[in-house]
Amino acid sequence: MAKLRVKITVRLFTDEKCFGPGVAELLHRVDECHSLRAAAISMEMAYSKAWTIIHNMEQRLGFPVLEVKIGGKNGGGATVTPEARQILEAYERYCRRINEYAEGVFQEEFAFLES
Amino acid sequence: MAKLRVKITVRLFTDEKCFGPGVAELLHRVDECHSLRAAAISMEMAYSKAWTIIHNMEQRLGFPVLEVKIGGKNGGGATVTPEARQILEAYERYCRRINEYAEGVFQEEFAFLES
Description:
Two copies of one chain form a homodimer.
Chain A: E1 5-13, E2 17-19, H1 21-33, H2 36-42, H3 47-61, E3 66-70, E4 76-80, H4 82-110
Antiparallel strand pairs in A: 1-2, 3-4
C-alpha cells in the first residue's frame, strides 16, 4: 500500500476557537504586508473574514492583536502587538514539539503497515 | 484572560487525506449500526458523502474497509474489515499518545499567559 504520513493540526480554544494555523499565517502576512487587507488578499481570504478572525481573537484573549497606525512618516499600517506575537511564537514552538513527537512515535504505532 | 486549552487533530495521508476523526467516527458507527447508511444518518452525514469517504480510503489504502453481507441468518449488513479495524485502533492509540504529550507540554509553552 501507499506510504502513510501524518499531519497534525493544533488549535487553541477559550470557550471557542481562538488560535490555529489560519490565524498564525494571517499574522505572518500582516508582518510582511503591514496591512490586514493586503495580508488577507495575499492568502485569498476575504477581508471581512480576516477582520472577524482578528476581532474574535481579541475578544477571546482579552488584548489587542493588531495595532493600526494611520498615516505618519512611514505611511502607517498594521503591526502585530507584542502580546499577540508572544502567543504566535509560543504556538509555533508548541506545534514544532508536537510534530517532532508525533513523527517519532508514528513508526511505533503504524509499523504493521510495512509488513 | 480566559483559560486556553488545546485541541489536536490527527490526519493520515497517502498522497491525499485518507484517515482522520470523521472516518474514525464513521467506522465506530458502522460497528453500532451494521449499516453504512444508518451510520451516516446517525451522524447527520449524507450517505453519498459516507460512501465517498469509505471508497477513497479503500482506494488510497489498497484494501477493503467494509465488508457488506447481503441477507443471511442475521439479515446481512456492513462490518469493518480486520485490516481497517487495525488502522482504526492504531490511529486511536496514536491520538491518545499525542494528546497526552500535548497536554503535558502545554503548560511549559503557555505558562506566560497565567501571569
